[in-house]
Specification:
- The termini are far apart.
- With about 500 residues, this protein is an alpha/beta fold.
- Helix 5 packs across helix 17, helix 11 crosses helix 12 and helix 12 crosses helix 13.
- A hairpin with an 8-residue loop joins strand 1 and strand 2.
- It has an eight-stranded mixed β-sheet with strand order 1-2-4-3-7-8-9-10, with helices on both faces. A two-stranded antiparallel ribbon has the order 5-6.
Amino acid sequence: MAIITEEPDPPPPPPKTKPNSKTKKTTSPPPSAASTTTKSNTTTTNPFHFWFYFTIVVSLIVLFFISISSLYPQDPKTWFLNLPPVLRLHYSKGRTIKVQTAPNYPQVEVFSIQEGPTNSDSHVLFVHGLGCSSFAFHSILKSLGHKNVHAVAIDLPGSGFSDKSVVVVEENVGGNGGFGGLWKVYSDIKEKGLFWGFDQLIEQGYVNHEENEIRVLKKESVKAIELGGEEMGRVLGQVVDSMGLAPVDLVLHDSALGLSANWISENQGLVRSVVVLDAVPSGTALPLWALEMPVLRDVTLGFRFVFKKVLAKCCGELFGGPEAEAHRILLKGRDGRRAVAGMGKKLNFSFDLAEWSGLDGVKGLPMRVIWSGGFSEEWSDKGRQVADVLPQVTLVTHSGGRWPQEHNAEEVAESIYDFVSSLPKSTKTTVEEQIPEHIQKMIDEAKSGDHHHHHGHGGHDRHEHSHGHGHGHAHAHAGYMDAYGLGQGWAM
């Protein structure tokens, strides 16, 4: 009997693979937790995210400051209506004078305020520094007025209530290339009509256009008023002449010393004395960089507490809230910041005080230095240096800062009064023109005829003649006053 056994089937042969097949796999260990964390961190630190958020933040900051600036109206009427009561009162007491800062520029209005009798022996004119205004001297003026001193303070063009910009007409000869040609076509159409070219084309067969015609294009632009030494001298001369202040006692504050120096040396007959009130040959108390840098200037002038901090640091520690706010409004309103910043660039930083004091038109002038003694030790040393340079000068200190302040106004006024009252009385000299002989003979004959006329008609005729003469003199005097604008307002 045969035994049959079953053997298991042999395993199937492995599948044949192509020699260059890409199905070959390499085994690798499973990824660990550390590698997973590193991969996720690499994905989250994308530099694009940083710059995206940075751009968003910067844009929001810029938008914020632009919106802050837009909150302050630039319209003059709205600006005046929003003035605080202290500035409204100051403005109501003043008047304007029209002056010309440059030969080819239009006249601008200069705000002025005065106290005391106009027939006083002393005519004191206060000239403020950059960033300041006549408002800083209103209490000093009042104190001097009570002492029978004619005290005047002005807002320089570009400051306070004076004009801060001017419309200038600029001429452009020949046009601006292609734009100039387009502007010419527009000017011709505006001047001669829309169908002028078609009419010429139909009548003549061509348009009468001169290729070589030189055209002068005029363009109006608004520019901030920027005073230098020459412009300052022109303003001072017109103010002194129009208000009849000569010989004047000048009180120069802060940067006004450097700006007025040339005019003083060239007009000795118009100046009786000079008071240097916390004034240095160059530089300003209020830092100009705070008015020039785009973001910083918006912060400084846009927030009350920031501007008050700047005043306390640079100009005086005891500025009250309403006082500091008035200075900020006057500096910011009607784009005064741009005018002050432009004037700062025209300061003569190479001005030599010792050389100036030795000039023939200066060395004989009586002078006094009134200086802050409590602002800082460094500033007190500066005052002693200025007093040592100027010849025959007395140094008097006060308790305020580099800008006049309310709490020491009486103190400063007393120092100025002691100085100007000690000076000899001013006499206005008049130059008499020599009358020609034939005219003088006619005048003598007329007087002789009047003499016989009076003898024939008695006292009644004498009364009528006297009355007529006085009436004519009054008319002449009134005409002189009106010519200089000393009626309802002063004008040039």
